[in-house]
């Protein structure tokens, strides 16, 4: 038995450093990839091992297939790829990040098809879809992200899409834009009592609609930015 335990100890000591080296190597490759594109990584300095928890690739030339290079970052929580050419295909490359909870896809080529991949990230806390091709159809998937706290939507979402958000009982901030949002859409938000901020940008809502929402959620701060010339 002693010989067996000694042999196992030697095996562990032999394999463990190798596994650690492979993990470090994978991380270094990811870092080099991000930096070569002009992006940056952020570590959690207080966590054991100081893992990389954020990757910023916004405004870079990153492509869908490139995101495979991030695979080794098992502790990744936040990914910023706004203002890039990322499409629905790119989202399939990041489904393995189980801790991902911040995702900024604004001004990318993501569509409703991509929301199926987004919905797989059940821990999602912040999601920015401004300037994407996501419409009301995609909101059915986004409505499954019950831990969402901050959500920004684009022109493709209308009153019908807001109706799909009824289950987001932890939503704190909602930003919407476009003529597709009317007083009817605001009515769909009255059940979201956790809202503390709603930003309405160039929508078709009226002052009466805003007032009704305000009465339904008194503690919510509502900003209503209108186009010039409209009352």
TrEMBL record:
Cleaved signal peptide residues: 1-23
GO biological process: SCF-dependent proteasomal ubiquitin-dependent protein catabolic process
A cellular component annotation (GO) from this entry: SCF ubiquitin ligase complex
UniProt KW keywords: Signal
InterPro entries, alphabetized: Leu-rich_rpt (IPR001611), LRR_dom_sf (IPR032675)
Name of the protein this chain belongs to: Leucine Rich repeats (2 copies)
Lineage of origin: Bacteria, Pseudomonadati, Planctomycetota, Planctomycetia, Gemmatales
